[in-house]
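quick one before i forget lol
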Amino acid sequence: MDGHNSDFLVIGAGMAGLACAAQLAHHGARVTVLDKGRGPGGRMAARRVEIGGEQVSFDHGAQYFTARDAAFSEAVAQWEAAGVAARWPAAGDDAWVGTPGMNAPIRAMAEALDVRWNTRAEQITRADACWRIAAGEAVFTAARVLVAVPAEQAAVLLAGVAPALAQLAGAVVSAPCWAVMAGFAQSLPIAGDCYRSETGPVSWAARNSAKPGRSGGEAWVIHASPARSRALVDRPKDEVAAILLADFLSATGCAPVTPLHCDAHRWLYALPQALSGEGARFDAALGLGIAGDWLHSPRVEGAWLSGRALAGLAAA
C-alpha cells in the first residue's frame, strides 16, 4: 500500500516531532507524521485503567514540565486557554501538567496534523528525487525526512543513509527508568503530593490523583533512580513493580499495604545525556534532519525547542 507523497515526513509524534510538524504545516507545507505508538504521548504518556469501577489515569512518563523560553511559554499559555494544561504548584512554582492527562497537549497538537498511528518507520531509502519510507505494508514518499525519535533509535534508522547524523545520535547514552503505577483503596499517610530523593532507589514519586483535572481514588506514580532502574532493567515487570512499591513505602515511612492495582513500565531511553547546544541538525544536501530533547536538553521544553529549530532549518 502506498502512502501519499509529502513535502516533509516526520518520524516520531512526541513533543519534538509534533512541534516540528506543526511549525511546518503552519507555513503551508504538506506534512505527514508517522508514529509506532497506538496514540498520543511518547514520554508524555498517560495510561488509563479501571480501578474499583473508576477510570484512573496515570502519567507514567514525564511528570510535569516547566516553561522558560518565551516562545514555549506562549505555547503553554495557549494550551492553558484550551484547557489541556494547568499549573501544578505541588511540583514547583513553575510546574505545569497536561489536563486531564499528561498527553493532552500532545493529543491537541496531533489532532491538527496528519498523524499515522501504529505505523513504525522501518527503513529509509532513496528513490529517484525523493525519500521512500517503508512502514510495514505501507510506503510513504517525501522530499525531506525529519527524524524525531530517541537517539538510539535514530542511529539505527539513519545508519544506511546519513552516517554523520547516525554517528551523532549513536554517541548519546540514555539512562533507563522503571515507572510503577499503583492505585490504593485509601489515601497513603504521606503529607505532600511529591517525593524526591537524590540518593535512594526511588528518585521521584507523585500522588497522580492530586494533579489538576484527575479523577478516581488514591493513585501514585513511582520512578526508580537510574541506578535502581539499571539493576532491574531486564527483570519481569511484575517483579519490578513489587520491588519498587516496597522501596517507596519504606522510603516514605508507610506500613506495607496491598494496592488495588500495580503495574510497571520500562522506559529504556528515559534520560538522555543531551548534546547541549546542538538544538537540531539538518543536512540540506540529503534532505534529512534530526530533532529531540537529546539534541537540546532532556526536558519537555527542550524537545519542543528542538522540533521548532529543525522546522526552521528544514524550511530554509
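fyi The radius of gyration is 20 Å.
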